[in-house]
Amino acid sequence: MNHIRPRFVPSRVLSVFYTFCLGGLSFLAFIMLGITGLLLMFHYQPGENTGFSSVLTIGTVIPYGGIIRNLHYWSAQIMVVTVNLHMLRVVWTHSYKPPRQLNWLVGVGLLILVLVLDFTGFLLIGSQESGAAATVASNILRLIPGLGTGLAQIFLGEPSALSGSTLMVYVWHCVGLPFIALFLQFYHFWRIRRDGGVRPL
Hints:
globular
């Protein structure tokens, strides 16, 4: 099994003050997002005419719905903050240098995924603000020569000016992006062990 992961990890690489457990806190927030997101899926209805009203119903009518939605929202914000701080710590300690350059690229990919997940979650609120944000994002994607229109349709569907909630955004937010993020996180953790931990270079 040594070719998969080292048998021992030196104790010095486990120092809390070196990593501040930012990666672990990010993963904990991801787990909380998964649990609360699954509970929200029972009552949320994506769509231009149903997204915003279902969010209001969750927050005001469904028992404990407001608590679950707030946990989901704040877990997302915590994850955005901890992932950014984690990347800052990696840069500060030069932990992106060989042999960890591949894991650094995986981490950059995860950062982008977290930001896109946060953005799509905002779109699913279905408010006028999220509709405007979805329209801006769609227009930016359409500027890509050749592929732009197709990408906008694949990722955002047809958001209206009054709602960013579409079935496309919902599927990406609840299924596509989380599973990609989960796979990359497990690979990220494996690479950390494979490269000998988070010891200073």
